[in-house]
Amino acid sequence: MTPDMIRETHFETHIEQKAKPAPNPLGANRGTPLNLDWVDEVRANTSAIERRAQTLVTRRTVKKEWQAAWLLRAIACTDLTTLAGDDTAERVRRLCAKARQPLKPSLVEQLKIQDLGLTVGAVCVYHAFVETAVRALEGTKIPVAAVSTGFPAGLSPLAERVAEIHRSVEAGAREIDVVITRAHVLGGEWQALYDEIATFKDACGSAHMKVILGTGDLMTLRNVGRASMVAMMAGADFIKTSTGKEAVNATLPVGLVMTRAIRAYMQQTGMAVGFKAAGGVRTAKQAMEWLFLMKDELGRPWLEPSLFRFGASGMLTDIERQLEHYATGRYSANYRHPLA
Fold this sequence. Notes:
There is one protein chain. By secondary structure, the chain is α/β, with parallel strands linked by helices. Strands 1-2-3-4-5-6-7-8 form an eight-stranded parallel beta barrel, surrounded by nine helices. The protein has a single domain (about 5-330), classed as Alpha-Beta Barrel (TIM Barrel), CATH 3.20.20. The protein has helices at about 5-15, 35-40, 45-60, 65-75, 90-100, 105-110, 130-135, 160-170, 180-185, 190-205, 220-235, 250-270, 285-295, 315-330; strands at about 80, 120-125, 145, 175-180, 210, 240, 275-280, 310.
């Protein structure tokens, strides 16, 4: 498989022939004043959304070199993540080494993709390890993302959450994943939610802000859609499904609601907002399903790391195994593809 096949044949010919024209985002999200009419207009037909999500995984299939190309794109859109209670500096350094070189050199040679310079989209860690990750990634363009604002519950005092953002940015984080107060959504307190996120945005400065909705805690898909709209109006660069710590994390029905909110917001404002699926995305098959969703609902621009990310770690192991099977015809054991 050649780089030209990956870049041109797959993403410019094969997919585009099967999908509607891609939108052309006019610019990054600058936010808007809170418009409660937009919030009230959000609707979610749960049965229809679930049926659409079920058909997504059966309507499109790709094999051989096409599948390999999709999986390489999934790697480029991955926020390689470690958010465990037993994280150490050495684990973070090993994760950063994997971020620099997500595939084994021998597999890169077999796939003939040496000139792609393939890396992941970002490395996501707790604030305590931001400086470690920044040093480990020095000389690359891979940004460090820090989870912040009382992750994962988001219930610490507002001043502490804002101070945490400032500390992570000062330590070198170029992306901040913030957690909202879910009670604002459950209580319909949209002004409070808007003000909270706008405050976080101001604290982020030039760092990109990903707003974690914690969708598994929001009770209904309509709440997910409404929270998505408020987060975008408050200036979110990305909206993100989950912390990965909820009982239910990233699901395709939730993704469908959030991507359609992104599309509605773009149509209203001409501004593009990114999407991040996090929590429970562990296999190569799931990675492709999320990419298919992005392509079908938002178009070609949302197949780029600038507008789409996975929050994952173990997923990369399965992707590497699938690519090795494509290259050699044999599956390898998981332990041959360590992450950290």
